[in-house]
Write a structure and sequence with these properties.
About 80% of the residues lie in helices and about 0% in strands. By secondary structure, it is mostly helical. Helix 6 packs across helix 8. The chain is globular.
C-alpha cells in the first residue's frame, strides 16, 4: 500500500511537467499560424486570441467559473490572474512592436522564470534550488541563441527602451499570472455540513473553473480592445480560421493543460518549462514557413532541451 501511494505521489509531478511541456509545444504553433494571416497587427492577434479563447474557457467552465469568482478563497486569485493576463497580452505585443520580435521575445519569455522565482521567494518564502538556477541559466541562454538566430537582423522602427520595458512587464505579469493560478489551485475554504473529508474535497477549487474565471474576466477588456483597435482586420473573412485556431488550440487547450500542470508543479518550474515554446516555434518556422536556422540556432535548441532535462530528471532523495 505504501509503495503504491508513493508511486502515485511521484507520478503527479511527472504528469504536471508533461502537461506544461505539451502546453508550451501548443503555444509554439502560434507564430506559424499567424503566418497565414498577413497584415494583422500584433496586438490584434493578442487581443483576439485571449479574448475569444477566454470566452471559450469561461463558457466551458460554466458554474465552476462563477463559483471561483464568488468563493472568497479563490476570488482574489482569479482577479489577480485576470489582471496579470490582460497586462501581459498588451505589453508582450507592444514589446514586439517597439523592441523587435527577437529582442522582445527574448526578454519577455526569458525573464519570466526569473520573476517567478522572485515572486515565490518574496511571497511564499520558497527558496530556489541550485538545480533550478542552473536549468534556468542554461535554458535562457539557449532560448536567446534560438531567438537571435531567427532574427533577420533589422532593427525595429519603434522605441527600443520602451519595448524593453514592455518586455520586462510582460515577463513579470506572466509570472504573476502563473503564480496566481497556482495559488488558486491550492486554495481551500470551509463549507458547512458533511464529514470533514467531504468538506475539504468540495472546497478544493476546480481547475477548469479557476481558469475559466481568470480568462473570462480578462476576455472583456481584451475583446473591447480587439473591436476598437482591430475592426479592419476582423472584417477580413480569411483571417477568421487563424483567429479561431489561436483561440481554441493555443489559448483554450494550451492554458487548460498549463493550469493542470500547475496543480503539481511550482510557478517557477512551469515558467521555466514554457521556454520549450520558442524551440517548437523555431522548428515549425523551418519546416512550415521555410525559415533558415543555422548551426547556432540548433545549438540553442540543444541548450534549451538540456536545461529542461536538468529540471525534469528526478533528483536523489
Amino acid at each position: 500500500m505504501t509503495g503504491g501511494a508513493d508511486a502515485t505521489r511521484a507520478s503527479r509531478p511527472v504528469g504536471g511537467l508533461a502537461a506544461v511541456l505539451v502546453a508550451a509545444a501548443v503555444w509554439g504553433t502560434t507564430g506559424t499560424a499567424t503566418h497565414f494571416a498577413p497584415g494583422v497587427p500584433a496586438f490584434v492577434f493578442g487581443a483576439v486570441t485571449f479574448g475569444l479563447g477566454g470566452l471559450v474557457l469561461a463558457v466551458a467552465a460554466g458554474r465552476g467559473a462563477v463559483r471561483a469568482i464568488a468563493r472568497p478563497a479563490t476570488r482574489g486569485w482569479s482577479i489577480l490572474g485576470a489582471a496579470s493576463l490582460v497586462v501581459y497580452a498588451v505589453t508582450f505585443y507592444a514589446a514586439l512592436a517597439d523592441a523587435g520580435v527577437a529582442l522582445g521575445t527574448t526578454i519577455a519569455i526569458g525573464s519570466s522564470p526569473v520573476f517567478a522565482g522572485l515572486v515565490e521567494w518574496a511571497a511564499d518564502g520558497r527558496r530556489v534550488t541550485p538545480r533550478w538556477v542552473v536549468a534556468t541559466l542554461v535554458s535562457v541562454a539557449g532560448m536567446v541563441v534560438v531567438t537571435l538566430a531567427r532574427s533577420e537582423g533589422s532593427g525595429p522602427d519603434g522605441a527600443p527602451l520602451l519595448g524593453i520595458g514592455s518586455a520586462l512587464a510582460a515577463g513579470c505579469t506572466y509570472a504573476l499570472y502563473s503564480w496566481a493560478v497556482a495559488r488558486g489551485m491550492h486554495a481551500t475554504g470551509a463549507i458547512p455540513g458533511g464529514p470533514v473529508a467531504e468538506i475539504a474535497e468540495r472546497a478544493r477549487p476546480n481547475a477548469r473553473g479557476l481558469v475559466g474565471a481568470v480568462f473570462g474576466l480578462a476576455a472583456v477588456p481584451l475583446l473591447v480592445l480587439a473591436v476598437v483597435g482591430g475592426h479592419d482586420a476582423l472584417g477580413v473573412p480569411s483571417h477568421w480560421p487563424v483567429f479561431l485556431y489561436l483561440a481554441l488550440v493555443p489559448t483554450a487547450l494550451g492554458h487548460s493543460l498549463y493550469a493542470l500542470g500547475l496543480r503539481s508543479v511550482s510557478a517557477s518550474a512551469a515558467t521555466l518549462l514554457s521556454l520549450f515554446e520558442p524551440v517548437v516555434a523555431a522548428v515549425l518556422a523551418v519546416l512550415v514557413v521555410g525559415e533558415h536556422l543555422g548551426g547556432d540556432g540548433w545549438a540553442g535548441i540543444v541548450l534549451v532541451v538540456v536545461g529542461l532535462a536538468l529540471l525534469a530528471v528526478p533528483g536523489r532523495r
